[in-house]
Design brief:
It is built from 16 helices and 15 strands. It is an alpha+beta fold. The chain has four domains: 128 residues, N Utilization Substance Protein A, Chain:P, domain 4; 67 residues, Nucleic acid-binding proteins (OB fold (Dihydrolipoamide Acetyltransferase, E2P), Beta Barrel); 76 residues, GMP Synthetase, Chain A, domain 3, CATH 3.30.300; 58 residues. The strands form four sheets. Strands 7-6-5-8-9 form a five-stranded antiparallel beta sheet. A hairpin with a 4-residue loop joins β1 and β2. α1 runs parallel beside α5. The longest helix has 28 residues. The radius of gyration is 36 Å and the shape is elongated. 27% of the residues are buried. This is Transcription termination/antitermination protein NusA. It is found in: Cytoplasm. InterPro entries: KH_dom, KH_dom-like_a/b, KH_NusA_2nd, KH_sf_prok-type, NA-bd_OB-fold, NusA_N_sf, TF_NusA, TF_NusA_bacterial.
């Protein structure tokens, strides 16, 4: 039977893609009905019988017998003479069922049928992949590096699905080789045309949160809750954790003895420095904890402006700000408050903004970014350190220090 080759070609896809029987029959019937519409103008009067397991396919066209010369629609009607060639006993008004062979559709139609069949199968497969990965959004996934491009890593999972890890979703220290397994969180899944685009991220705060779930049993079991995660990927992160069971120390459980539990997570993130903090509804206490390892003397909070003025001993200021201003920036993101640092016991200090007639505002802004907003806070620093922590040239920093020193000398 000439239908068998076409059915067998479909069966190959069926075995590879695990298309269920009902879907298989639905796709086949849809493809053949489209072909019949193109050939005969309508498929309403056709019966299609499919047995994909055996490779059987039958197409039957049903027409009404009319008198010779009275045929108006050759697809719906058949003349008495033609009907009696099929079965001599047919009479006018009776229904005639006649099998249609694939060869009757023509060679071009058969080629188009196969192409349409392949297209429908790919479309079905892509839809299933989209649905599968859409449910995995926000979950950790592992795939193997297949191709390394300038702007992205192309990976394949065990099923051959393509996962994309863009450059801006990679941790700065990430370095991958072909064949290496990579973990990340499925960030987004979209259909572009008929093809699913699956984007993985290793820089998302959610990736760190999910690593806590996978590596720390108490988080996985729900005994410890990860309240919020903020990150500067590859540099530093702060994680606020809480437990509804007073017997559990959430920070201790997450870190483990000598950092044993969190070590694997740190290594996965390219030695990212992770501060685990006890969450609390007490805002002053939460800000104090968020600024760890610095020890805060006092805090003044303005809830209307979401700003907090933090007083510290001079030797604690650099700890609060952190390298590159990372610590104070993350503390602000974690708590939702803009944090201003002040030195305890500094009475004769001057706000940097007071020098706006001599120092450009953009330069003042550069110092503010790293938590230095008074004259003495800058004068306490080494020039080389200030150059490293800001985007300012050494000449600019030296000129600022000269201006500030002249204020106190006067």
């Amino acid at each position: 039977m000439e239908n068998i080759a076409l059915i067998e070609s479909f069966s190959e896809f069926k075995d590879d893609k695990f298309i269920d029987r009902v879907t298989l029959m639905s796709i086949l019937e849809d493809v053949f009905r489209n072909a019949l519409k193109k050939k005969f103008g309508s498929d309403d009067n056709f019966d299609i019988i499919i047995n994909p397991d055996k490779g059987d396919l039958e197409i039957w066209r049903n027409r009404i017998v009319v008198g010779d010369g009275e045929v108006e629609d050759g697809n719906q009607e058949i003349s008495l003479t033609e009907a009696q060639k099929i079965e001599p006993d047919f009479e006018v008004g009776e229904d005639v069922s006649e099998e249609v062979k694939l060869i009757d559709l023509g060679r071009r139609s058969i080629l188009a049928l196969r192409q349409n069949l392949i297209s429908k199968i790919h479309e079905h497969d892509n839809t299933n992949i989209y649905k599968q990965f859409k449910e995995l959004e926000g979950e950790i996934y592992t795939a193997e590096v297949h191709h390394i491009r300038h702007r992205a890593i192309i990976m394949l999972d065990d099923e051959g699905n393509e996962i994309i890890l863009p450059k801006d979703r990679q941790i700065p220290s990430d370095f991958f080789r072909k064949g290496e397994n990579v973990r990340g969180v499925i960030e987004s899944v979209e259909l572009k045309g008929n093809k699913p685009s699956i984007i993985m991220s290793r820089t998302s705060p959610l990736f760190l949160e999910k690593l806590f779930e996978s590596e720390i049993p108490e988080v996985f079991d729900g005994l410890i809750t990860v309240k919020k995660v903020v990150r500067i990927p590859g540099e530093k992160a702060k994680v606020a954790v809480d437990s509804y069971d007073d017997r559990i120390d959430p920070v201790g459980a997450c870190v483990g003895m000598k950092g044993s539990r969190i070590h694997g997570i740190v290594r996965e993130l390219g030695n990212e420095n992770i501060d685990v903090i006890n969450y609390t509804n007490n805002l002053q206490l939460f800000i104090t904890r968020a600024l760890s390892p610095a020890k805060v003397t006092s805090i003044k909070i303005n809830e209307e402006t979401s700003r907090a003025e933090v007083m510290l001993r001079p030797e604690e200021v650099s700890k609060a700000i952190g390298r590159g201003g990372h610590n104070i920036r993350l503390a602000g993101q974690l708590t939702g408050y803009e944090i201003d640092v002040f030195r305890e016991g500094v009475e004769e200090d001057v706000e940097l903004t007071e020098f706006s007639d001599e120092i450009d505002s953009w330069i003042i802004e550069e110092f503010s970014k790293i938590g230095l907003d008074t004259a003495k806070s800058i004068l306490e620093q080494d020039i080389s350190d200030l150059v490293k922590r800001t985007d300012l040239e050494e000449e600019t920093v030296s000129e600022v220090i000269r201006i500030l020193k002249s204020e106190f000398e006067d």
